[in-house]
């Protein structure tokens, strides 16, 4: 699994929140000498009746596509003038959001998706899922969630929890790379409950040795708690961290439908960028079976 950030995909809906995430993506691309792709997606809405699938509001969709094309064209011209050393492209998709994102990830070999988030989720978003959470869970590569309140675009203090062992060496390599690009310091936080303390502590000590050998400046602390998300959030505030590097692999460990999982807890209690590491070379979601747009099936006679 490579840990360099060669290609960044920024999703935008042209709102102020997305513009802030774009600024973050531009800063990361400048430091890592990455190619930046700006994606806007327009969802289709279909009616299925006896005659087959029909586009709902075709004229409206056509107007939206034209306006989006014009906006993306002007955005690309402006960004290339402001950042002449960066390779910047824009893509317009007329698709379901996650399918469109994963097609670009596959076609363009994207290493990181940057997405704006409002932060705390209300009750409805917890039930049906916020757009940023949909991108986080559905994208086939690493995701950086950028809160709309974020106004710092460098990562001088990097919080790196050691809480699961999946792809840990890759996460540490990535963290060191980010620290080097930002002239930053790593705050290593070993965190475990009683059940996993032996293996997590061993991994934590091994990571400390790795950081010492790499001459990377770091601080370290080990804590035991059953509330890992809350502890990490509080630690990030106490340390005034600029970013948290997290492993995505334990997303499927749900407590229940109404009790928040780790990632919803961390999103709801943290107001700094969250980098979720995903191994894009693992089994990916099927693109061929994904539905395009939204289907509304209507009853028909007979």
Protein model, in words:
By secondary structure, the protein is α/β, with parallel strands linked by helices. It has two domains: 1-150 and 275-302, Rossmann fold; 151-272, 3-Layer(aba) Sandwich (Rossmann fold). The protein is 40% helix and 24% strand. The chain contains nine helices and 13 strands. The chain has helices at residues 16-32, 58-82, 97-108, 123-128, 131-138, 168-182, 197-213, 228-239, 262-269, and strands at 7-11, 35-41, 45-49, 52-55, 88-93, 112-117, 142-147, 157-162, 185-192, 218-224, 243-247, 274-277, 294-297. Strands 5-2-1-6-7-12-11-8-9-10 form a ten-stranded mixed beta sheet, sandwiched between helices. A three-stranded mixed beta sheet has the order 4-3-13, with no helix packed on it. Strand 9 (185-192), helix 7 and strand 10 form a beta-alpha-beta unit. The longest helix is centred in the N-terminal third of the chain and has 25 residues, at 58-82. The N and C termini lie far apart (55 Å).
Brief account:
The protein has 302 residues and is of the alpha/beta class. The chain is built from 9 helices and 13 strands. Residues 122-129, 254-259 and 285-302 have low confidence and may be disordered.
**Spans where pLDDT lies below 50 across 5 or more residues:** 122-129, 254-259, 285-302
Tally of separate domains: 2
Alpha-beta classification? alpha/beta
Average pLDDT value?
84
The proportion of strand residues reads 15-25%
Helix fraction, binned, reads 25-40%
Helix segment tally:
9
Supply Rg. 21 Å
CATH C-level class of the largest domain is Alpha Beta
Q: Total number of β-strand segments?
A: 13
CATH architecture level-2 label of the largest domain:
3-Layer(aba) Sandwich
Please write the string of helix (H) and strand (E) elements. EHEEEHEHEHHEEHEHEHEHEE
Largest sheet entry = 10 strands, mixed
Name given to the CATH homologous superfamily of the largest domain: HUPs
* N-end to C-end Cα span: 55 Å
Strands across the major sheet, in which order?
5-2-1-6-7-12-11-8-9-10
Q: And the CATH topology of the largest domain?
A: Rossmann fold
């Amino acid at each position: 699994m490579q840990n360099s950030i060669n290609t960044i995909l920024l999703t935008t809906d042209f709102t102020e929140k997305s513009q802030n995430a774009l600024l973050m993506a531009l800063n990361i691309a400048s430091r890592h000498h990455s190619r930046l792709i700006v994606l806007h997606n327009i969802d289709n809405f279909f009616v299925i009746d006896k005659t087959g699938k029909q586009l709902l509001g075709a004229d409206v969709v056509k107007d939206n596509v034209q306006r989006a094309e014009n906006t993306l064209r002007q955005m690309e011209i402006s960004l290339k003038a402001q950042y002449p050393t960066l390779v910047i492209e824009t893509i317009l998709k007329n698709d379901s959001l996650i399918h469109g994102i994963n097609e670009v990830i596959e076609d363009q070999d994207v290493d990181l998706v940057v997405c704006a988030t409002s932060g705390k989720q209300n009750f409805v978003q917890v039930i049906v899922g916020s757009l940023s959470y949909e991108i986080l869970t559905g994208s086939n590569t690493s995701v950086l969630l950028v809160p709309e309140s974020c106004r710092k675009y460098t990562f001088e203090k990097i919080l790196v929890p050691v809480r699961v062992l999946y792809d840990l060496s890759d996460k540490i390599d990535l963290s060191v790379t980010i620290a080097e690009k930002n002239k930053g310091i790593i705050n290593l936080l070993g965190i475990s409950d009683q059940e996993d303390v032996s293996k997590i502590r061993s991994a934590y000590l091994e990571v400390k040795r790795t950081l010492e050998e790499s001459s990377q400046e770091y601080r370290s602390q080990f804590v035991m708690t059953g509330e890992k998300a809350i502890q990490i959030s509080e630690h990030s505030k106490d340390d005034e961290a600029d970013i948290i590097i997290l492993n995505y692999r334990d997303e499927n460990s749900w407590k229940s439908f109404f009790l928040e999982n780790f990632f919803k807890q961390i999103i709801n209690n943290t107001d700094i960028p969250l980098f979720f590491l995903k191994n894009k070379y693992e089994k990916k979601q099927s693109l061929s079976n994904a539905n395009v747009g939204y289907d509304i099936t209507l009853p028909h006679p007979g």
